[in-house]
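Subject — a protein and its fold
Fields — amino acid sequence, structure tokens
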Amino acid sequence: MSHLLKHRWRSAALLAGAGFLLLARPLSAATASAGASPSPKPAALPASSPAPSPAANDPALFAAGVPTNSGPATAGSAPPSTDFATNLLRRLVQRGILSQADADDLTKKAQDDAATARAQSQADAGAAAQAMAAQIAQHQADMTPPPPSDDEVRVPYIPQVVKDEMTEQIKHDVLAQAQEQHWAAPNAIPEWVPRVRLTGDIRTRYEGAFLEQGNDNTGAFPNFNAINTGSPFDTTGNLFSPQYNVDQNRTQFRLRARVGAEVDLLNGWTAGIRIATGQTDSPVSENQTIGLASGGQGGDFAKYSIWLDRAFLKYEIGGTPEQDFTFTIGRMDNPFFSTPLIWANDLGFDGVVAQGHYQVLKGVVPFLTAGAFPVFNTDFNFATNQPAKYISSDKYLFAGQLGTTWNIDKDFNLKVAGSYYHFYNIEGKLSAPFVPLSTSDQGSTDDTRPAFAQNGNTYFPIRNIVPTAQNNFGTIDQFQYYGLATPFHELAFTGQLNYDHFSPFRVSLTGEYVKNVAFDATKMNAIAVNNRAANSATGVLGGFDGGNTAWIMTLRVGKPALEKLGDWSFSAGYRYVETDAVVDGFNDSDFGFPLTGTNLKGYTITGSLALGSNVWLGLQFFSAESIVGAPYKSDILQIDLNGKF
């Protein structure tokens, strides 16, 4: 490279000198005209100049600024060259500034310098290539670690540029696969995922039952549910019938867990399912008493049963607060606007129901609910131990409710409804006359007894047992079941008034009144075995003392829903439930425990405090006592820790 620069500086010096000579020649001519003797005129170039060398007009030499005419040139014979330096030297010879020998010498030296520069350039390029090859080889050697020794673990070093390239390639491959398989591309989450809504809750509870020591523990509280769900009771035997505990306090720890899902089936259809705990298949409670060994489960850390609690299909159109219609079939939540006076909070309904509401005036939205629900279906092979079968005694609930919501103003909101609950075949029926010789013999109306009951309703014996010599004329083997003594056609009125002036806090007053319009006290008096006044001193059976009405009032203050830490609510209420106002198998399972159901009066106090957005602490206190019959009083304290998702 230095030779090339030296050559270029030499060419520039020659050109500068030639230019100086050209400028000097006119000056000499001017001097001659002033008296100096003129210079001799140069001789003309020979007519036959040698042919230019093969290097003439070489583009490489031309680009380097080197004359390419290697031999002497004549003025008249050599054609003009495309090389500027060659033409310049030729003109200098023609004008006598340079001799032909000097021009030839300059040309030869320029050619030699160009050859030397080319050789040096090629050498420099080769050296650079070798240096680059050496760098590449060293880089590859750096990336290839030496083999580790037996006691050494080596981790190859990967340059950051290679890491970045690998990351981009992996990202590209993963996204391509995700888009192809529709599992991670934008808006390509599996289409069913947004249509599934999972829900669940867990409640742990401490429960203390504090029973009045003055309660009658002489056999005044037979457990009709235990009799009807087991072997028939021999009324002539020497043993007490199954009895409730009414005098010994108990402490229990209870658990309730539920998990459910609702799936949007599109086109207005929804499917729902839920499973829940429960120590029995009781319709009114999903509580599992921890440590209780019952029905082959629980106790000694044994596992607990899980029950199918909800399973339904629902069709809905509208879906707005002003207009909506739904049709549901299966096992569902309570579809009626009601209180625990008639329906327990955990109760599920089996059957079919239609619900609708439609706004007729601004803020006035009437609603209608109507449904049919199988309560009991007769065993297909009843009676199982006889070749001739008995007629079916299926039981149903037919129910309708008409009501309205009314947004009176910004502070007041009212909801009222009237309901009619018609139980078909819910009452017991007297059997055809027969003589049961063992507890396994079946009467023709055995299936009319309740499959589940709590306490309080009036019962009568449903087996018409004929006194014969086989039963010692009625003095032995009187195996008896019991059925409800009255039909139940319940007319109910329910209302709730909300006051939101202190929003987000609300004051609510809720009330419900119900009357069993099918009740006939005269007929009840003739057949009832319980809910009677005390016998007279002469032993005459006391008269029937039950009733057919019930009511409840509850005042609630606080947040309508516990949504964040510190939210709270408080309520206090009073209820009065006569013996046969409602079916005791379906209402509140906490008030009056263990004699829950009917024939109870008393008050309730509850409070809730949010410990987070989905966790809250609850406290309930129930104080109840019997209305008629033997004295009974219980106080129940419950402390709950709840969580939901």
